[in-house]
Amino acid sequence: MPKYSSRLLGLITVLLIFPAQLLAEDDSMLVLVSDTRRLKGLEAWWGNMYNEGHLAFALATVVAVPLAGVILGMLADVVMSRLGIDLKNRALAEH
User: Fold this and answer.
1) Is the domain of 48 the same as that of 11?
2) Closest Cα partner for 60 from 42, 81, 35, 82?
3) What whole-number distance in Å separates Cα of residue 6 and Cα of residue 15?
4) What is the C-alpha to C-alpha distance for residues 63 and 60, in angstroms, rounded to an integer?
5) Residues 6 and 52 in one domain
6) Region for 27 from its dihedrals, namely left if φ exceeds 0, alpha if ψ lies in -120 to 50, beta otherwise
7) Is the pTM of this model over 0.70?
8) Which domain holds residue 23?
9) Are residues 61 and 91 in the same domain?
10) pLDDT in tens, 31-52
């Protein structure tokens, strides 16, 4: 079974990549860039970082996404505690 699933995954990958290579010009690689002409501030910085170096963009994204998750989780805890929902008590409500 793993042999068939790896072949299926390879076929799906080829079918997804092949059209992009067909649309590329004259034997050149397809270049993906972000249009940052109308962006300002943090959005422009993020788009320019994507255009200039994909590795730096990937590393910043790997750091930013979990950090945003932690911040939003802590904010949700504060909001729920203000509403009176006690998340620290694990007593079951079923009797």
Assistant:
1) no
2) 42
3) 14
4) 5
5) no
6) left
7) no
8) 1-31
9) yes
10) 778 888 999 999 999 999 999 9
